[in-house]
Amino acid sequence: MEDREAGLQDRLSDLPDYIIQEILCFLEINQAIQTSVLSKRWKNLWASVPDLNFNSKGFKEQTFPKFLRRVISKREDCNVRRLDVFTHLPIRLSSMEGLINYAVAHQVEDFRFVSDDVQPVYLPECGSLKALFLSRCKFGDLRTSFGFGFANLTSLDLYVCWFCYSENDFGDPFASCQNLRRLCLRYCRFPSLKRLKITGFQLVSLEIQGFGYGDRGLQEGCEVEIFAPNLLSFVYKFSKPVDFCGLHFPSLDYVEVHVWQHGNDEATDHDKRRASLCLMSMFEGFGNAQSVKLYCETIQVLDLVDGLLEQQPSPFKRLKKVDVHCNRESFKVPAHVTNYLLAGTTGQELYLEGLAWLYALKCFICTVYL
Amino acid sequence: MSSSAENPTLTTEITKPSTEIATETAQSAKKINLKTSDDQIFEVEESVAMEFATVKSFFEDAPSSTDTVPLPNVPAKPFSQVIEFCKEQIKFKANPDETEKKKSNSEFVKEKTNEDLVEMIPVANYLEIKDLLDVLNQAVADRIQNRSVEYVRSFFGIDNDFTSEEEALLREEHAWAFEDVDED
């Protein structure tokens, strides 16, 4: 353009639309819409951005669903790569349905839904979905066969999600996600189950946080079974020991366990015994692990009942490394616990790498190499 | 520091965590000459140049080439900054550390002017440096977030080719997207 002022050259004019849209992908949708008044070229760019970021900030309970509907209706008929919804408002299920159906019909690959309050969420089957992150969602009235219908999902993150089964006391919610490789469950609740199964044929990494009986999401006595023949890494943190009735981890390489038993003084002998036994039976599922990371609280739970651990054979067969993290300086791993952890690896030379101070965390780590 | 396996015990010793970073392999670094659109020649280490997919495929097509590679769409000023970014990036290839990488990326964009960032985008696109493009797009989006239309126009150097009537009409048409947004 001849009349362009010197120095005010349109630096993006030669770029293809999709590069400019990649910038818009990092904006919330209402800001992306605002760019339509920049120039003729920008007028319709927002309507085909691949990523949609909705944030309820600034909206009221009635107007946010209306806004969602209008955005959908003004968009061009093009695929959604990522749908991101952050809401501090209770959204009616019907408004979410419209948005989610739209995304599913447009081949959404990545869906993140973050809510301030636990609310029911509707999730239809979706073959295009690869990554899902849900925070504070409730799956109510689940039938016997309930499972997420995402055959191509590879990564699933659930934070404070409720699985409310109505007709059955057995649940296997992830079995139909046949391609799931990464699963992270943090503070999820399964209040009506007597038995929870986690089936993941392709699962490589599994992390469970905030698990346990009572206020930690499982009905007292609920048994948990995990079938993950390809699992390499299992992390169980900020949790209490529960009854793992079957852990099928033939490929396991790395395991990390941070559990504790609160109020040791008040806990009855029965409680202590049960916690210890639950943890030991969990450890039996880790036989193939090569690298183990434990915390001093975990060691204490193993050693809650005098004489109990000594009767147990060491669970590990291929162990190469044990890390024990501790936030106390004076903690010593008792000899019989060391023996329990390491006895299965006799015949190998034992090297101690010693204790290292982590300056940032003020944490105590001891590492044992075998 | 070893004991027999029949009698495994944990003894303790205070050591400092190793902060040693694997030093770069001391191979004689091959250099590649790259010529920018304003005829400046940059002598770049091969490992850095291979970060540019466009240059990489040039050498894949002509493996024994010792010629200077022309980069007709790349001006020298943003190119020197792109090289700076890629030099940092290859350090993380040997030692992947996502936290440090993010820190380094945010340091990189922090000290750049708006103009620097916007000028690097076409270069990153032409050279097909996906990581840099993502970093730049995010940085640009952060800087135009919550800014007025006029600010964004001057940020990108966009000519407003709407008549004032057209623009007013369009603003009215899109008012629905903002009608319930609180001013803050």
UniProtKB/TrEMBL annotation, chain A:
Pfam families: F-box
InterPro entries: F-box-like_dom_sf (IPR036047), F-box_AtFBL13-like (IPR053781), F-box_dom (IPR001810), LRR_dom_sf (IPR032675)
F-box domain span: 9-57
PROSITE patterns linked: FBOX (PS50181)
Name of this chain's protein: F-box domain-containing protein
Organism of derivation: Salix viminalis (Common osier)
UniProtKB/TrEMBL annotation, chain B:
Pathway assigned to this chain's UniProt record: Protein modification; protein ubiquitination
Matches recorded under Pfam families: Skp1 (PF01466), Skp1_POZ (PF03931)
Matches recorded under InterPro entries: SKP1, SKP1-like, SKP1-like_dim_sf, SKP1/BTB/POZ_sf, Skp1_comp_dimer, Skp1_comp_POZ
SUPFAM superfamilies according to UniProt: POZ domain, Skp1 dimerisation domain-like
Domain (SKP1 component dimerisation) ranges: 130-177
Keywords assigned: Ubl conjugation pathway
Transmembrane annotation, as ranges: none
GO biological process per UniProt: jasmonic acid mediated signaling pathway; protein ubiquitination; ubiquitin-dependent protein catabolic process
Residue ranges annotated for the SKP1 component POZ domain, each copy included: 30-88
Region (Disordered): 1-21
Subunit structure: Part of a SCF (SKP1-cullin-F-box) protein ligase complex.
Record function comment: Involved in ubiquitination and subsequent proteasomal degradation of target proteins. Together with CUL1, RBX1 and a F-box protein, it forms a SCF E3 ubiquitin ligase complex. The functional specificity of this complex depends on the type of F-box protein. In the SCF complex, it serves as an adapter that links the F-box protein to CUL1.
Family in the record: Belongs to the SKP1 family.
Annotated protein name in UniProt: SKP1-like protein
Organism: Salix udensis
